[in-house]
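User: Working on a comparison across species. This one is tRNA pseudouridine synthase from Fraxinus pennsylvanica. Can you predict its structure so I can line it up against the others?
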Amino acid sequence: MSDDLIQESSKHSHPESPQRPSKVAKINGEDFTDGAEEDKEEEERKLIEKNMNPNPRLQRYLVAIEYIGTRFSGAQQQSNCRTVVGVLEEAFQKFIGQPVSIFCSSRTDAGVHALSNVCHVDVERISKRKPGEVLPPHEPSVVKRAVNHFLQKNGGDMMVIDVRCVPFNFHARYKAQERTYFYRLLTGKELLSTFEKDRAWHVPEELDLLAMQEACKILVGRHDFSSFRAVACQAKSPIRNLDELNVTEVGSSPSFPSITEREQSYFAAEDSFSLSNRSKIDPCVSGSFNQLNVGNSIVSQGFGTRKKNRCFVVTARARSFLYHQVRLLVGVLKAVGSGDLTVPDVDRILKAKTVTAASPMAPACGLYLGHVKYDLPSDV
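Assistant: Here's the predicted structure for tRNA pseudouridine synthase from Fraxinus pennsylvanica:
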C-alpha cells in the first residue's frame, strides 16, 4: 500500500510515486530516511491533477458511514466478496440509476468496525423522466436518506451518518489530517454476552490498567515502528508519529441502569422531598433495597442477572498507521496488562525493529475506526 494510508486494511497495492529527495529524521540519536510525507504530497498532487473535474455537472459528496465489520470482507472492493465499498456503491447505483466509484479514507480489514469511516463519491443527477437532462445536485440530506433506504435492504449493517458537498479536488483519503482508532477488550472468566459477539476481544485474565498506561508512554511519539508493522506492509517508511495512545476503563455495553443508578436518578428527580418522604412514596427506595448495594457495586444481583466483564478501550490517534500497527500495539499492551511482558520489555520490542519481537496481534473484532479528521472547506 502507499504511504500514509490507514494500514488496517485490505492488501491492495497502488503505484508508487517517483522517488524524491528524502528528509533525514533523527530519532534517539539515529538517522532515518523518511520520505513518507513528500511521497504522500506528490501522490496527492498527481491524483488531483489527473482527476480534475472534466464534467462541471458532477457533484462530489463527502459521505461518513458506520458499519459492523463482521460480515464484510474488508472495506476495499474485491471480486466475489461482500465489501463496504461494494455495498455502498450498489446502494448509490440504485439511488441515482448509474454506476459510481467510492473512495474511502481508510480501508479497514475484514471484521473491523467503523463508527465513522469517510468516503467521497461523484454524482451526476440525470432526469429519469427526460433521459439526458441534467438536474441540479441532490441536497446532502436527500442523499443520506435515499442511500440509507437501500442500505437497510442489504443486510442493515451499514448506515450513512453524514453527507456534505465538497469541491471536486477534495479527496477523502489524501485530505485526512488524522485518524482515530478504538480497540475494545473485555476481561474476566465470564463468557462474553451474546450482544458482544464479534464486537470485542475477550481476555479471560484480569489486566493491570496502570501498567498498560505506563507502556503507552513509551510508544507515543515519532518512532521507527518496524516492530509493529505486518510483514505484508508496503509502506516505504516504518516511521510514524503516534500522537495519542492510551488505555481507559469504561462501562461495558450494552449498558442499562443498575439499581444504584436508578435510585440516584430517582433522588435527583425528587430532590424537593426529604429522604424519609421518598421512602414512603416509592417502596423501591427502601432499607431492604439499599442492602443490595455497597457504594456503586451490586452485592447480590439475583438469579438471572449476568455478571459483567470489565471493559478497556485502547485509543490510538495519528495521521497514518502502518499495516496492522494498531492491532500489534494492542497485542503488546494486553501482554503488559496480563503480566506476560513488563514495561521495559515494550521499549526493547520497539528498539528491536522487527515484528517477530512483538506479541501476537490482537484480533480484528475489537477494532473500530472511530474518527477521521478534516479541515473542511467553508465555502461549499
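For your comparison, note: The first helix runs from residue 36 to 50.

User: Helpful, thanks.
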